[in-house]
């Protein structure tokens, strides 16, 4: 177990001790030196006792739910600050109705916890630093250093004070006592204390050591007890307060997601229909091409047009587009209700199958094509009862 002692949340000079089943020496240094010692350890944080009120009250119940209501009520008159701002933990005694209580402002406790979280340290216990003092039954322990006095009055009780309050402190420690009070003492003013006959003093010689027995019982008053439950309760209160707004927001999101899904489905159906139309048109234009991905149709069309235009450099694949353009112009000029039944392109030859009711229109078409292309156009025709069918054969490009 690693015990860290801080004087302020941003204390640049922490003290720490690695505690096992024997006394441990306090070490002092920087966070860079402390952090490696935190690995794999349960961390106990000791905070200044001035931030914590240790007290006792009498509650005639051991039911935890009843204690949660009764303890704050019993302490209400003795706490000057707003009770709603306080975090309270307690420990019952097995042989009496007395309850040991620790009280700290909730925001101050969170400030201490956040200070160690900022150092990437997760704290398992938070205690007032008066519990770092050794303690024995039927005696007091007093530590005096510079301007601070710590007094441990019991296994789960104690406080810190200032030298200005020392006379009143001494009177309270000896009030009603007929024999000298046993006092385990560490002080930088031993001469002052030795002259006070109200105390039977045992000097503390190991001031820089932390004893396992010092913290064993106080761990029951861990200030983190119930803090998470309070956080959850506050969250539930906030959630209750904003439940209607949150419900409307969630409903709006659900509607928006539904509309988006329906619209996406509709657009996908339209896209699939357009893809099918494009594939059908492509197959009609290029019957010899198969296995075309609709998403790659544009690039495939470009490739096929490039091949038709002869960009592949293969004379056998020369483009028939000029011939087709000439046929279209000639058919427009010939009139006569010409109808194209079939167009076949093979190598440099273009063959058109036509039919009409006007033989003269066929003759006009052939004459116009020969003038346009500058080449002879072969025509074969046959007559049926109601039409004339013809086959025109055009040679290579002009």
TrEMBL record:
Its membrane topology: Single-pass membrane protein
Gene3D superfamilies found in the cross-reference section: 3.30.420.380, General secretion pathway protein M, EpsM
GO CC field: Gram-negative-bacterium-type cell wall; plasma membrane; type II protein secretion system complex
Protein keywords: Cell inner membrane, Cell membrane, Membrane, Protein transport, Transmembrane, Transmembrane helix, Transport
Domain GspL cytoplasmic actin-ATPase-like: 2-226
Pfam families, per database record: GspL_C, T2SSL
Signal peptide: none
Record domain GspL periplasmic: where: 237-395
Superkingdom of source: Bacteria
Locations listed in the record: Cell inner membrane
Main location: membrane
InterPro entries in the record: ATPase_NBD (IPR043129), GspL_cyto_dom (IPR024230), GspL_pp_dom (IPR025691), T2SS_protein-GspL (IPR007812)
GO biological process: protein secretion by the type II secretion system
Described function: Inner membrane component of the type II secretion system required for the energy-dependent secretion of extracellular factors such as proteases and toxins from the periplasm.
Similarity-based family: Belongs to the GSP L family.
NCBIfam families noted in UniProt: typeII_sec_gspL
Listed name of the protein: Type II secretion system protein L
